[in-house]
Every structure is written in C-alpha cells, then in structure tokens.
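Feature request disguised as a bug report, sorry. It would help if multi-protein outputs had a clear separator. Right now it looks like this:
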Amino acid sequence: MSNKRVLLLAGDFVEDYEIMVPFQTLLTVGVDVDAVCPDKKSGDQIRTAVHDFEGDQTYSEKPGHYFTLNADFAGADAGNYDGLLIPGGRAPEYLRLNPAVLDLVRAFDQAKKPIAAICHGLQILAAADILSGRTCTAYPACGPEVTLAGATYAEIAIDGAHVDGNLVTAPAWPAHPAFCREFLKLLGVL
C-alpha cells in the first residue's frame, strides 16, 4: 500500500463524480486523502451537484450527494502532502476568490508537487497564476480562462487527460480513468 498523502480542495456544489470517484480511487490504492473546504471543519458536509451531458448546449445540473469533509482547511499545509487534487463543478468559481486557497495552490506548485485539476478546477489554477507557459486542458467553457492565464489550452477528448510536468488536467468526469491513472503516476503510486 501507498504511504502518500493528498489534499483534496472542495466546496459546496463541487461536481459529485469529480469529488467522489477520485477520492475513492485514491483511498482504494492506499493514498490518504484529506478533503477540506475553507470555513468548514472535519465532519462538516458540503453539497455536491451532478453535471451531465444530455445533448443540450451545455451540461445540465442536478442535486448530488452530501460529502463529509475529513480534515480542516485551516491546518492545511502543502508541506504535509505529496499532491493536490482539485475537482470541478461550481465550487472553483468562488474558491478562487479566497487568498488562502490561492496561496496553498502556489505552495504546491512551487514545491513541484503533483497537482490534479479537472473540469472547472482550472479556474483556481488560473487565479493562482501558475499556468503561464504550461499546456493544460479543462472543461471547454474554461478554455478562454486557461489561455488568458498564459497557458496553451489543449483541446482533447472528453475522456482524456493531459500531463505537463507536475500538472495533470482533464476536461470532465468521463476522463476519470485517464485522470486518476496519470495523477497516481505523478504521485509515484503506479
């Protein structure tokens, strides 16, 4: 089993699959995962939303599950973790407004620790100003933000993942097999 430890950064209305599937996948292979949310403590719950692709011009959104946090954001320190996981959904649009969130993301990147961001999670990376000169992907609607942050937006299949140094990114939850596999490789678990 792994002795790796990952910080999972989430908030209310995080995408249900994008928090639950990677969280459980990492636990399955023995990676310890601390799921945190600013202004919440271990044992508190966040609400999730299910984003689905049903042929409309954009994804649909439905109520998801409650997800119980297992650590406190206040004590999160990049030095205590081997990697960072940022799921998508609506949470990134407001989490990126929190200076402590951005400082934490920058600390992971400066230490060259693996960072996995999926879907709208790239909004946080763009706001943290760590994408300049990189190539990454995101949900297509976030492509302009990625480009404005100085990165090259990789337009890939919805079930693909892209790796650039310590960064693994993916467009949305259909990419979980590739996204989780590439993150586990960066962590040195696979």
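(second protein starts here, but nothing in the output says so)
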Amino acid sequence: MPLVYRPACADDLAATDALVVASINDLTVRHGFGAMATASPPGFQLFSLKDDPDGLWVAEDEGEILGFAWSWVCGDVWFLAQLFVDPARQGQGIGNELLERTMEHARKSGAAHKALITFTFNRVSQGLYMRHGLFPKMPIYFFNVERERIKQTLPEPQLRAIAIDNGAATMENLVDIDSRAIGVSREKHHRYLLDDPVITGILLHAGNDIVGYGYIGSNGHIGPLAVTRPDLLRDAFATMLKLATDGSAEKISAFLPGTCDSALSLAINQGMRITFPMLLMASPGYGDWTQYLPRNPGFM
C-alpha cells in the first residue's frame, strides 16, 4: 500500500515526538556529537495544533508514523518547526512530500517570509530547503556552562528586571518589542510561555523605559530574548544570565545567533562553550537578527 500523508491529530503527538528524538539522535551520533535529544511532552506542538491544524502533517504506513512536519505562522512569518523522517526510510522522498504540504500551509497563510532552524551539518536537508527557496542566513550556536562557574564573575546587570504579567499594557509592550526585533508580533506565543509553570518571563527596563524581555526555564535555559535596539542586547543577556545564576539549575544555556556579536563575546568571556552549531535558513529578505535570541529550533 502507498504511504498516507494526512493532517496530524493530538493522538499522534507522542509518537511523532519519539520519531523526532530518534531522528535527531541518529543524526547527531553520526556526526560525532552524541545523542542530544530526549523525549518531552509535546506542549507547543499541541498548542500549535489547536491554533492552526493546517501546519502539522504525518506520513503513515499501515498505522506506523514514518515522518512528521510541523509549521506555524505568526503575522507574515511562516516557520518550519520540525521536519523529520524515520532514519530507516530516509532517501525515499517522504521529507519532500511532507515539505510540500507545509509549504502549502505557508501559501494559504499568505506569509511574506519563511524561515527554519536546522543543524549546520544536515547537508541533505539544507539542499531540500534551498530547492524550496530557503537559503542559509546565519549560524546559531547552542552555548552552555556550569552555573557555579559563572555565578561569581558576571558583571552587575545594567537593566532592571520585573516579572511579566498578563495585563493588556504589558502584552502591547511585548508586541512592540517583537515587531522591532523580528518584524512580527508573537502575542499568542507569549501567552503560551506565560502559561507554562516552569518558565519565568521578565521585562527589562532601562530607567523608566521597557527595552526588552527574556524568558528563563527552570532548567536554566534562556530564551527567547528580544530588545528594542541592538546596542541593548549585551546588557539584556547579562541581566538574564545573572537571573539564571540565582536559580538552582546545574547548567545555564542559550541559543546565540552569529550576528549578535556582543552577546557572543559575553558568553565566551564568561566561560560558556558551544555545544553544537545550527543554521537559520530563510527566504530572501528575512532573518538578520541582531536584537533577538531564539528559544529553540522549534519555537524560534
């Protein structure tokens, strides 16, 4: 029987997460980075499914899921969060078929910009994406460090940090910051993050002005982070690092774009090290991030 390509449903998401974990680890082990992915509750996938079910697709063979594609849209930006195929079935056109369906999602949404984050060493996928009009824009490095290593050496924060509330005025500020940093509002994704009990949202103030925001997970991971001007990024990242060191996580981590010189310099000077390299790919005219640190390759 031919493969079936169909919209994903909520009951698929545990199986698709297992597929994604297996596919990532197969790739990273083959390239000498070891197994990196672990299973996690598919909270953001479920959120995206409820928000816009046209963005999630599975490839199925007699009830067995062999491939998964997931994209979301905010404003005029379409983002491919995941596209993975069972390692035993790669090279059979499954990824291309799934990508065609997510590209149709982009066309239906009217998105002016398309983007994704992939592993730098994932050459086959990069060729596939370039054939669909997404081209390499910049590296994104995953950094981490032992919390105790930098706890005593961080510079004093130059920005004032206040917990994000769910008020309408605060959400307007978040929308404005994102519009300046990445050119699009992500209000629905802020609401998702603020509903997560293991994530803390922070508004960053310079004097009386709100100049940015950041999020910290209970696991010590920082991101997303955005500021209203590029010259504020170092101070914003330093402030979030200081807040993270005040927590109890053993390690602190963040994704830093290669265009964010000041944040990269701070990370290196504080002893943070690159764990693995990733790559932003996008349609022409999008993705020059100098005011934004993404959360992860699926959330952006």
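Even a blank line would do. Unrelated, but nice: The mean pLDDT is 95.
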